[in-house]
Predict the structure.
Amino acid sequence: MTSSDPKRAFAVRPSDPKKWVHTPEPTAPQSGAKADLFTARLTIDVTPALRGRIKVVAFQRGITVAEMLHELLCCEFSDDAGGTA
């Protein structure tokens, strides 16, 4: 029987959300150009129809879906937006 770490419980809310969000997850060293960049994977659920529309638009723009969504999210949640994020 394994015991779970109370600090890493699934539904526990952090006491300081901003600090929690900006603290990078510990990762194994990677080789390559992206090793120096901090990135995090984000998973969302979309309908198959929406997924198809997103892929078509990205293809028409000559970019990947990841690049297109990254740009969209950066515009929506810019550092100078003045919000709480």
